[in-house]
Amino acid sequence: MSTVLVTGGLGYIGSHTVVELIEAGHQVIVVDDLSNADKDVLQGIQGITGTAPAFEMLDLRDRSGVKDLFKRHQQIDGVIHFAASKAVGESVENPLLYYENNINSLVYLLQNCNENGVKNFIFSSSCTVYGQPEQNPITEDSPVQPAVSPYGNTKQIGEEILYDSCGAYGLKCISLRYFNPIGAHASAQIGELPKGVPANLVPFITQTAAGIREQLAVFGDDYPTADGSCIRDYIHVVDLAKAHVVALERLFQGNNTDKYEVFNIGTGQGSSVLEVIRAFEKVSGKPLNYQVVDRRPGDVISVYADTTKAREVLGWHAIHSLEEALDSAWRWERRIRNLDR
């Protein structure tokens, strides 16, 4: 049994990955500062798996705290690093917060991995490293473009730090460049629960449908796409979580061909914002109150993945449809709002 440290493990993607790790037989240590998560998520994880992972409340910007963490848990075999600030718009408004949180935490983790002989590292990267792509679908060989937001830049810088660390310290790392995770666990015991106003499309959709938000904003309908709205590759969060487990086991088994590898994790299918709205209305049976507003700074026009490499090398592919993901997100929203009672 391997022991895996999961940073940001009570967050949206982190919690689903913790579930998949436990169900794959791994022991998990969760680290989270609860800045964008709730400790009650531990109950959801235990409800699904029957196992309560070890939990450490820690802000990874606390350098001495990270060192103490590794001293207390000397059995760590691998790290999956999710903990980061991730809202594009907020990063434009407050770039220094993003550089401090996303870069410092990564550096402190890697320093302690090196000092404690932890060689296996999975990085939560993003398709934002491609910027506004020259063409779609995007392969891993597509050029990394100048970042269109500080958030995207922190992911580019993070990948560069990892590449250099692999060369210098013998680290083995896989960066998963994933696209737009949506949906919730089939049990509806865990899902996306942003604090404050959602920065992502689907929780804003479900909160609008639930009456929490008065209206959904569509940021622009004048882009050069079929219906004028932005196009993204929306992947079910459970599919995404499973990709992390497969990638980590690739490192554990020594199957990585290079010390540093990158994989696109998406569906390979682009959907526009208006298409997502229509798909949600179909699966939920609820019309959405939405309004087209001005474009949002930092948004790219269209981005979706070529997933050939993940399929051929990792043996992974997404299995859930857009409609399945939206249906699970709506069931989660109804559960947490007690709408079915």
TrEMBL record:
Extract the InterPro entries matched here. Answer: Epimerase_deHydtase (IPR001509), NAD(P)-bd_dom_sf (IPR036291), UDP_G4E (IPR005886)
Q: What class of enzyme is it?
A: isomerase
Which cofactors must be present for this protein to function?
Answer: NAD(+)
- MF terms in GO: UDP-glucose 4-epimerase activity
This entry carries the following GO cellular component terms, namely: cytosol
Keywords, comma-separated and alphabetical = Carbohydrate metabolism, Galactose metabolism, Isomerase, NAD
Name-wise, this protein is UDP-glucose 4-epimerase
Species name: Aureitalea marina
